[in-house]
């Protein structure tokens, strides 16, 4: 199976290229990127074939592509690929507006191609283990969830992450969709109400950006469960890792705590005066890429769909709507 | 200085253990019925008062460790009698009560010290000092957790009666509402959800609140009476303009016991503990004693107790109504 990468704007492409090559059934055919300097840099770095344009890559009729452009630029690349009849794994958030997200879902449906949203945490081993316990009833009824997806501000990786036009926002747009998706999946219920407070004026990365760096969110689901999400870019640049994702579930049986990125070694290097965590847990990205490949091979919908990407984006946009008025807003957004 | 302790439950006995470390004299105890005070009175060589009036006639300071709904009457009577007052948190059951209590004590010229003991826990006091020192900059996003099991008592379990205790959000989360305000300043609005607002008969309660502070900081406060006994966890995390600090009682425990199961049950009311040379409750009582004996400023004023009460009641209101509640600035707090 032949798969290529459209755009290296998102840093996750740097991980996915390894995941594609690690799948024995995949031929990673190369990459294309409209920013030619970036394209040459990563093609050289990863010793990958460089296509002169997206169209040139699609003309080779790959089975699938990974779309890793800036959040606001997923739609044009998805449309190109869908029209070429190529299956698509799109980086998250699926888009920055509901209109774009709907257009992405529609064009793929009409073209009959698979659309998967890149929510790798669905393939995290700790997250999957608790999902199994939820499903077999061993936790009992869920009452509430307290979740976090915090991190360092990603400006050091790609400046566009803090560009409101290209990213669609800051910490909210970067982080809310992961937990919005996991909670929908865990609870088997849709979000009906969102309350949020955001700030940026005095956060650790203050003064450097206009987008929000802090956010606290409360979701209410149709089944009555309430869940909070902390999406803040609150980890300083000398924190021992990039950030993390945690979920605490309050249920009939008690408390379940998931720290999805806790499987680390503590490393102290005296010469470099450094302390960092070295992750040894399973690679969730690999599971996600493998699922995309399996879905193509079996010609079936992937575990995580474009609709899931739309729903998660809707929650993120509701966060902005609530933060603007200081009161909860109801979903679906009109 | 003669001190009378009203209430002989966990707080009454814990405060007594603090008072014996001061120059004050524990004059006596009050309980309902009075005979329940006999054991503590014997332990400390103190009297058993037949009623509150007898206690007021015999002491300089009253230490009110009774259930929340009784605080109001007892504080008003003590103020009228010109006694100095220590009152367990929450200050009162309603904001109207709390404001009257503060006004009565101001009019009578007596001190009203509210026992927000979390301010005396060294990890919390030190984190506040680190923030006040500017080591992590102005707080931006604060996360506070206090979680345990629902208090249980063989008889008269007033904790679980909403009219008496105000429930988990007023009894437990008020600790962290007070701490959030101490750390990040006055609170502008509160949005909260809890289990009992939706499932009144649930055997547990659990709540989440989002506070917006007037200076732009935001706080996430988590409170639980939903954990299995004997678990008691506290955590905090403060992200500031220049850095970040975190504490987790589980991950930073100085002692972890993993013993073969005994028949022993968990205590009725869990008290947080980390091995220390002095109990934070004793630190609190010593500080209060010093404030009273030397007319010194105290780290927890009556206004602080009132402000924390206002935040907790707003959280309850938000959980019951489903909307964010804006807090009106209180003149007592501003003054």
Written overview of the protein:
The complex is a heterodimer of chains A (334) and B (335). Chain A is 35% helix and 25% strand. In chain A, 52% of the residues are buried. Chain A has helices at residues 13-22, 36-45, 54-59, 74-83, 98-111, 125-135, 164-167, 171-187, 284-298, 306-325; strands at 2-6, 27-32, 64-67, 87-90, 115-117, 142-151, 191-199, 214-221, 226-230, 243-251, 254-259, 264-269, 274-279, 329-330. Chain A is an alpha/beta fold. Chain A has 10 helices and 14 strands. Chain A is globular and about 55 Å long. The mean pLDDT of chain A is 95. In chain A, strands 11-10-6-9-8-7-14 form a 7-stranded mixed sheet. Chain A has a 5-stranded parallel sheet with strand order 2-1-3-4-5, sandwiched between helices. A two-stranded antiparallel ribbon of chain A has the order 12-13. The N and C termini of chain A lie far apart (40 Å). Chain B is of the alpha/beta class and 335 residues long. Helix content of chain B is 36%, strand content 22%. Chain B contains 13 helices and 13 strands. In chain B, the strands form 2 sheets. A 7-stranded mixed sheet of chain B has the order 12-11-7-10-9-8-13. A 6-stranded parallel sheet of chain B has the order 3-2-1-4-5-6, with helices on both faces. In chain B, helix 4 runs parallel beside helix 5 (95-108). The radius of gyration of chain B is 19 Å and the shape is globular. Chains A and B meet through strand 6, strand 7, strand 8 and strand 9 of A and strand 7, strand 8, strand 9, strand 10 and strand 11 of B.
């Amino acid at each position: 199976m032949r798969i290529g990468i459209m755009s290296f704007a998102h840093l996750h492409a740097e991980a996915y290229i390894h995941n594609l090559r690690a799948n024995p059934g995949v031929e990673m055919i190369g990459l294309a990127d409209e920013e030619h300097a970036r394209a040459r840099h990563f093609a050289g770095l990863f010793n990958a074939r460089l296509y002169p344009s997206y169209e040139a890559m699609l003309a080779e009729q790959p089975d699938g592509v990974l779309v890793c452009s800036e959040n606001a630029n997923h739609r044009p690349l998805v449309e190109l690929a869908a029209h070429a009849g190529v299956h698509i794994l799109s980086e998250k958030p699926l888009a920055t507006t509901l209109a774009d997200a709907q257009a992405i879902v529609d064009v793929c449906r009409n073209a009959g191609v698979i659309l998967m949203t890149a929510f790798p945490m669905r393939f995290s081993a700790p997250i999957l283990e608790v999902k199994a316990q939820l499903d077999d009833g061993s936790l009992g009824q869920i009452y509430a969830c307290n979740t976090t997806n915090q991190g360092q501000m990603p400006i050091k990786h790609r400046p566009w992450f803090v560009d409101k036009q290209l990213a669609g926002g800051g910490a909210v747009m970067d982080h809310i969709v992961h937990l919005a998706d996991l909670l929908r999946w865990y609870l088997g219920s849709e979000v009906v109400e969102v309350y949020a407070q955001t700030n940026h004026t005095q956060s650790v990365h203050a003064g450097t950006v206009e987008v929000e760096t802090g956010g606290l969110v409360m979701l209410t689901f149709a089944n009555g469960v309430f869940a909070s999400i902390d999406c803040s870019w609150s980890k300083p640049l000398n924190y021992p890792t990039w950030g993390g994702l945690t979920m605490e579930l309050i249920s009939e049986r008690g408390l379940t705590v998931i720290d999805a990125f806790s499987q680390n070694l503590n490393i102290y290097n005296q010469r470099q005066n450094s302390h960092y965590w070295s992750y040894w847990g399973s690679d969730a990205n690999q599971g996600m890429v493998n699922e995309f490949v399996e879905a193509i091979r079996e010609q079936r919908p992937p575990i995580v769909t474009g609709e899931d990407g739309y729903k998660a984006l809707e929650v993120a946009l509701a966060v902005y709507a609530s933060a603007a008025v200081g009161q909860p807003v109801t979903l679906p957004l009109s | 200085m003669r001190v009378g302790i009203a209430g002989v439950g966990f707080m009454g006995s814990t405060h007594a253990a603090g008072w014996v470390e001061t120059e004050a004299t524990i004059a006596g105890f009050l309980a309902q019925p009075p005979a329940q005070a006999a054991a503590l009175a014997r332990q400390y060589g103190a009297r058993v008062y037949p009623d509150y009036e007898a206690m007021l006639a015999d002491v300089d300071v009253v230490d009110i460790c009774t259930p929340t709904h009784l605080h109001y009457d007892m504080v008003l009577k003590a103020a009228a009698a010109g006694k100095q007052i220590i009152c367990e948190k929450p200050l009162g059951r309603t904001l109207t009560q709390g404001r009257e209590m503060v006004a009565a004590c101001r009019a009578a010229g007596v001190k009203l010290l509210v026992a927000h003991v979390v301010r005396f826990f060294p990890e919390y006091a030190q984190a506040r000092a680190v923030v006040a020192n500017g080591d992590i900059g102005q707080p931006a996003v604060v996360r506070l957790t206090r979680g345990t099991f629902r208090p249980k008592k063989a008889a008269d379990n007033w904790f679980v009666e909403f009219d008496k205790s105000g429930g988990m959000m007023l009894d437990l989360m008020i600790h962290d509402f007070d701490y959030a305000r101490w750390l990040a300043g006055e609170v502008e609005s509160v949005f909260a959800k809890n289990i009992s607002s939706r499932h009144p008969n649930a055997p547990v309660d659990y709540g989440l609140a989002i506070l917006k502070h007037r200076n732009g900081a935001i706080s996430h406060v988590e409170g639980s009476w939903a954990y299995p006994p004997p678990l008691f966890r506290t955590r905090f995390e403060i992200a500031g303009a220049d850095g970040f600090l975190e504490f987790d009682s589980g991950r930073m425990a100085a002692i972890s016991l993993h013993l073969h199961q005994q028949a022993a049950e968990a205590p009725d009311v869990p008290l947080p503990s980390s091995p220390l040379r002095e109990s934070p409750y004793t630190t609190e009582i010593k500080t209060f004693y010093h404030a009273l004996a030397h007319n010194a400023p105290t780290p927890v004023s009556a206004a602080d107790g009132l402000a924390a009460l206002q935040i907790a009641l707003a959280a309850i209101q938000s959980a019951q109504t489903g909307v964010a509640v804006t807090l009106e600035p209180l003149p007592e707090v501003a003054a």
